[in-house]
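Hi there, hope your week has been kind to you so far. Do you reckon you could talk me through the fold, stretch by stretch? Thanks so much in advance, here it is.
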Amino acid sequence: MLQRAEGLDSSWAFSDDNKLRNNKDSLCLLDNVQFIYELALAQLELQCLETNYEITNGLREFKLLEAKDITKLIKRLAYFKVVGGEYTDYFRIIQKNRTRSVNQYLTHWIYPYKGKFHPQMIRALLNIIKVEPGDTILDPFIGSGTAAVEAQLLGINCIGTDISPLCMLQSKVKTESVSVLNGIIKVKESIASQTQPSLLNPKSGALDQAIDLIGNEEIRNFYKIAELVAISDSARRGRDFVNSFFKNLNLMIYSVKDYAEIVKRLNLKLGQVDIRLEDARNLSLDKDSIDGIITSPPYSIALDYVANDAHAFKALGFDLEEMRAKFIGVKGKGQERIELYNQDMEESLQEMYRVLKPSKYAVIVIGNATYLGEEIKTVEFTVEHAKKMGFKLVKNIDKIIFGLYNIMKRENILIFQKPL
């Protein structure tokens, strides 16, 4: 199927919901599924969830021939809108969206971050590598926390590590705030009354002081991220700090309410999330302890994450040069920078192999960035060194990407298996 799909158009016609919901054999893709790699992932989902099917209408509609557990399909599938005449949980989840972007539902949108995962893809990959509720996955480059949110929604436990305190903070907020929603709402009035007059002069530090006095760490983190979003809006878009803070604070609260409402409506049992400030090259995890890995290493050869988030690091009190010395891919110049990046990546791959259980899967989403006018063969390097460590490459899926400011035009979804 993957070979035959390469010659097809990138999008196809939408389907009639009423007809599909009256058909107990129906499987229908979501309307936003437009690319060949998404079709490939959708079919891999069905295969890995032990479903037999046939394509019936322009690659968008399927006929369900046999399913081991149709309820599981409804609760887990990422690329499907209707299964057996019922809307999927994922279709209902993505309606909870306070943004204009289809992939920024629930808390995914909170804090601007370049190079985010597509949440839909992560949900599909969790199905494809066959992790179950109660299993534990790892994302050693947790970034904006997308993998953590999607695992949490499926009842899968997630350990997320990152060397960036900003990544740790935003990932915690996206996954922990739903458990302290009432406290967040109660604190809002106090924050507004204590700081709004002084916010007319943001340098006064009144907001920082009010946030620091919040006793609950999860609630304190929520308000700190709201402040950082306002700082980002001011620094990057020239927006008024005060208006941005309260506008985004309200949207964040609505998004967490949405999260709580969908959990109740779908009777979801959330997975446990453990976000750690930790180096992917030296993980504090036991050997053979992780049920699956899904990650995307930083594209920091071509995208300087320290410079990009300098305003946030400064607001959090971190020294930029100290950050630069710790981060992967931002040390050195020219060829030295590439060599240091490759060395760091090799150490990270070794750690992934060490902590993954035998027979389990590691998914690495990565592309070849352009640096100093030349393409850096990061994909080829990753495949070569992963194989040397003992990984078996079981699938390599091309993925077209947008929005990374021409750093790259495509990524590869590399699915490795650790042998028994």
